[in-house]
Amino acid sequence: MSYISFPGLGIEPFHIDKAAFSLFGRDIAWYGLLITIGMILAVLYANYIGVKREKLKSDDIMDLAFVIILFGVLGARLYYILFKLEDYIVTTGTFWENLKDTLYRMVSIWNGGLAIYGGIIAGLITAFLFARKRKIKFIKLFDMLAPTVMIGQIIGRWGNFINMEAYGSETNLPWRMGLLVSYDKTGPETGIWNYETYVHPTFLYESLWNLVGFILLNFLYRKKKFDGQMFASYLIWYGFGRMLIEGLRTDSLMLGPIRISQLVGLASCILGIIIYILNRKKLGKQSEAYENIYSDIANGEEEAAEEAVQATETGEHTPAEENKE
Question: Does the global pTM surpass 0.90?
């Protein structure tokens, strides 16, 4: 049985079962339960922010949520398996036994093994195609999704904590996390720990980094200047943080000597900066229009806000602006 501790914070060794509870004789893992909770909260938030800030239709948002969750989870799983293929291929039995066991391992996401970058890539492709089909400005969906995906990242990392995975290298920092493989009890009050090591709680680093990012993006959203601003800000914030945190982890997906997530994090950060600069320059004229939109929303003038949104997309003047001229 494995135990976790935070000795520098005065937290003694404790154990958390991977199963939250049993249902109809089958264990329901904390990992899957936390991911589900994160998805539900993300959908509720997306519906709120999409309608309020981007003036999207709630029906479109809920339809997008269904397909983006489906393909996002699929993408996250496939991305992880692609770089850990040797861990999923079974070769010890007959052909059909190996095929069955291999497929079972691949679909067993409740045991862990989702790569967030795979989910993000699949989610963005899905959102882009969805926007084209529904004739919605795709960058508005990307802006809406930027803080939304952070909710899943904040909560999902705690599934890694319960599974005792996604931790970092050894450290003696005050907030170090102790990993204990087993405990031999020799009496009612005493015992012997067989093995213990202290590591960086990188799951916590990333969860807190995303929490701060979520708060910042929500603050920026209130003063949004141009379409693409939230998406670019997310790429910069998360990409930079993941690049640093990934360097501490011991279970990184590798491509030769390269940590894949660290490389993608750097690329995401650079891409975010480029998108931000180009969109800020190209769509700078939207700045005043968006200030009017959020001013109208704050004053309860939804009709004026809707006219302003349309004006930012078509380049036309709203009646209010024409009166000013």
Answer: no
